[in-house]
Amino acid sequence: QSQLVESGGGLVQPGGSLKLACLATQVELAYYAIGWFRQAPGKERERISCLSRDDLHGYLEDSVKGRFTVSRDTAKNTAYLQMNNVKPEDTAVYYCAVKFTLWPCKNIQAPDYEYWGQGTQVTVSS
Predict the structure, then answer these.
(1) In 12-24, which positions are buried (b, 16+ CB within 10 angstroms) versus exposed (e)?
(2) Secondary element (H or E) of residue 116
């Protein structure tokens, strides 16, 4: 059983909103840094956001800054990626990942994350 289960993907029109969820089933999310990644067809996986364990340090890639936010609900053991004003170029498979660390997340690279979600497809199209 996967430690991270993603949901919330789907088809959305340009300018619309979508909220992705990442439910942690076997780890306590409060102790982990969270990363969000995406991979578009024919492109490499890219990190778009992260949130440090303390929720005080985070990162947003320039292309999503001002449109996406990342958060967590420790009571539900779930992380979220709120996507607003989506664009066709946001079309991709989105992945969440977590790493057990006290350090700020900005310098954590993809290979360092310990657990990954299965991915959820987001398609932005009219």
Answers:
(1) beeeeebebbbbb
(2) strand 115-116
Pick the closest to residue 31 from 3, 5, 6 (CA basis).
3
- Tell me the residue length of the chain: 126
- pLDDT number for residue 74: 95
pLDDT of residue 37: 98
Token representation of residue 81: 């990626």
pLDDT mean by block of 10 residues, the chain; 126 residues: 89 98 94 97 95 89 95 96 97 97 91 96 97
Rounded to whole angstroms, how far apart are CA atoms 3 and 25? 5
Taking the C-alpha atoms of residue 84 and residue 117, their distance in angstroms, rounded to an integer, is 22
What is the SS3 string spanning 31-84? HEEEEEEEECCCCCCEEEEEECCCCCCEEECCCCCCCEEEEEECCCCEEEEEEC
